[in-house]
Predict the structure of HTH-type transcriptional regulator RutR.
Amino acid sequence: MPLPTPRTRIQKKNIQTIMDAALGVFSQNGFRGATLDQIASEAGLSKPNLLYYFPSKVAIHRALIAELMTTWLDPLREMDAQGDPIEEILAYVLRKLEMAREFPRESRLFANEIVQGAPNIMDQIEGELKTLVDEKAKVITAWISQGKLAPVDPYHLIFSIWATTQHYADFDAQIQGILPDKGTARFEEAATFLNHMYRAMLRPQIASAAH
Amino acid sequence: MPLPTPRTRIQKKNIQTIMDAALGVFSQNGFRGATLDQIASEAGLSKPNLLYYFPSKVAIHRALIAELMTTWLDPLREMDAQGDPIEEILAYVLRKLEMAREFPRESRLFANEIVQGAPNIMDQIEGELKTLVDEKAKVITAWISQGKLAPVDPYHLIFSIWATTQHYADFDAQIQGILPDKGTARFEEAATFLNHMYRAMLRPQIASAAH
DNA sequence: CGTGTTCCTGACCAATTGGTCAAACCTGAG
DNA sequence: CTCAGGTTTGACCAATTGGTCAGGAACACG
């Protein structure tokens, strides 16, 4: 029985190994496309051994998603209403881009889940996530009404940030197929590009002609 | 044997029915996650009947991808080097957004394929697609050197357009979970937002102070 | 009508799948 | 060393999967 909290160091190690292997397999094949044998093989364990630590395939997936959800939203949480609006948003963009580079598997796991209709995490999207987004949207709206940002829809602004940053993880195969160079330069180029893009669109226009 | 070109009207109709059903199933579950039984059931045909028209599961998938690739790139092809740069790019953005609204299943089919490493279409990405993108990147670069656009990396500009527009199809579940309204307003809002975003970032800055 | 071709199906198959289980194997505290 | 607990595995199972096949049903066309 998989104990709620890992007790022994063996449990800790194996659970970690399994989740790491499962992350790779689920993120590449989606839930239905992934097999326990694949995960077991990737983890260097036997299939019954997997099922000693997790009661079922979905349990592994759920554990992964749960772990991911807690850390995935941190960059957005860090956006500070007290800071300089444009710099705060740009910092958020760059943090998200950094996560796309650092944790592409996590990004793809998420992408797979959402593309398939988010069957397992819709409640968290409509709860935790929506709450956070609503809160930050209010912050952005306040910034706009203070004239510190160009007037844009805060929700779609956030969507565009998710889209443009996660794209570099989720669609990496396509990007690497198109971009001439094959190094990691694409992420640095992306940082420059997104920096320009969001600065340009968020810069408040010259104050209204009337004064 | 599935004849290369559909002959009878029955073939035409059934092949169409199958591909439509397969599009739905593949786009929601990915290739490995989709089953022939599911597709057959969705199409209202028996499984052996599917395999009368297509020799295998991958054949159906290949047919879908092939059909998609031909039309999916049309919006980009239409970008005209002779037109007004900003308007041309914006028209492209809106066409892509329109496709995300009109053909979300096609978008998700594509997304699934790329997220999983584009195993079946990497050659087309590195061939047809790359050629087209290279060509259009040159056009954009020319526009920039004529001072008609702000200087941005043309490749990443195109990536950002793909990301922001397809996001509304691929991640629709998330968007609908977050946005207050549930109608189709999100697409109109997106059009407004993207219009602002790309105009702001592409507008050439005031000519260099020196004159 | 008749008859050759196209279309369709139930029954079947081997391989793979998620999952079980009893028995064997470790491991660490006393 | 011991032995009770945690850990691991080979063998197994029922269900599902992609795919086959022989034959029947529907059609086209003279």
User: Anything to note?
Assistant: Residues 7-8, 10-11, 14, 45-49, 52 of chain A lie near DNA strand D (CB under 10 Å from a C1').
